[in-house]
Write a structure and sequence with these properties.
The chain is α+β, with helices and mostly antiparallel strands and about 350 residues long. Helix content is about 30%, strand content about 25%. It is elongated, with a radius of gyration of 24 Å.
């Protein structure tokens, strides 16, 4: 069959995380008489300002504040502890806070991110790789990482590496990271490092693109990956293979192609383009081939198909993973208008 033409498709995932950090909250603590000077109220006041000085209050620091509130404290400091902990207890997810209280006649305002579900130096654990990854978001508390919004592709590829290899040692080595401990800090730094290495066009997000042949009978052949996703996958020992439908008229009908591919490669993980609603954090299949703005992973384990989404707001909760119903598999994978790239070990 003679060749008709060569086509190229280039898809972007630019805006990659729900990063609306909640509303702006202010707690005001008043009601007691203090000296005019702005002396610390006591140990709780001192700990609260120390823990939030870096702009974040994580789960370990929050637990330490709760423990401190149970000790003998000066009256004003105890009032602060009760008020702050009552205020913070209303919010169970990653939230940007502004909290104000008084030291004497001086008002003190603290601005910080409240992350009650994890701490960066905590280790991830789980009974399986997917359970470990269910706790990991691309969102972090680190000052040195600045591309949290954009690194969904890098986060997904690193998670695929872990699903396929069972460890991050090779990826960490390739990214110049000697430390292989499974801490949130190391994994967030690895996401950032991979994104910086792969983002060669210096535009937000990573691109997924491929070339393919169209024969005179409409059949699609020889899809070849290109773009930043391929570069990132190559760097950490993954092979990316684009998965279009079998013909031009069935370009987005991938059920037959995927069934054959999965039979041959049962461990394959699929990098899939979706549309992320930045106001709500919800994802949905793209309404068109250029409407995707986020990457997720879809894979099969234990006779179940799973979706892993690094765009969730919280680390540590397991919310990044969910089992897909047959209708979801149809919408997100078999009939999606987003990109689909199979990922394999090299």
């Amino acid at each position: 069959m003679s060749l008709m033409l060569v086509m190229k498709i280039k898809l972007f995932s630019r805006c990659c995380i729900f990063f609306c950090l909640g509303l702006l909250f202010t707690g005001a603590l008043t009601g007691w008489i203090l000296p005019v000077q702005a002396a610390e109220l006591g140990p709780f006041d001192r700990a609260l300002t120390h823990y939030t000085a870096d702009g974040a209050l994580d789960s370990q620091e929050y637990a330490a504040l709760k423990a401190l509130s149970q000790k003998a404290l000066p009256a004003a400091d105890l009032s602060l502890a009760k008020h702050f902990l009552s205020f913070a207890a209303k919010y169970s997810a990653f939230t940007r806070m502004t909290y104000s209280y008084y030291r004497g006649e001086r008002s003190l305002t603290l601005r910080f991110v409240f992350a009650p579900t994890y701490a960066e130096d905590q280790l991830l654990s789980g009974r399986s790789p997917r359970e470990v990854l269910s706790k990991l978001s691309q969102n972090d508390l680190l000052h040195e990482t600045v591309f949290d919004h954009e690194r969904c592709g890098a986060a997904a590829l690193l998670s695929a590496h872990y699903l396929l290899y069972g460890h991050f040692k090779l990826a960490f080595h390739q990214l110049g990271m000697a430390e292989a401990a499974l801490s949130y800090r190391n994994l967030h730094q690895a996401q950032e490092a991979l994104y910086r290495r792969a983002n060669t066009d210096h535009q937000p997000g990573l691109t997924s693109s491929f070339r393919y042949l169209i024969y005179t009978n409409g059949r699609i052949g020889n899809p070849l990956p290109e773009g930043e996703v391929k570069q990132a996958a190559d760097l950490i020992g993954l092979k990316a293979l684009p998965i279009p439908g079998p013909t031009v008229t069935r370009f987005y009908d991938r059920r037959q192609t995927l069934a054959s591919f999965w039979k041959k490669h049962p461990q394959a993980v699929f990098l899939v383009g979706v549309t992320l609603n930045e106001d709500t954090g919800n994802i949905r299949p793209p309404s068109g081939p250029l409407s995707q703005n986020h990457f997720v992973l879809i894979f099969k384990q234990n006779n179940q198909i799973w979706l892993l989404n690094s765009g969730v707001l919280d680390n540590g909760t397991g919310s990044a993973l969910r089992a897909l119903k047959p209708a979801d598999v149809q919408a997100y994978l078999y009939q999606t208008m987003g990109s689909v790239d199979a990922l394999l070990k090299k």
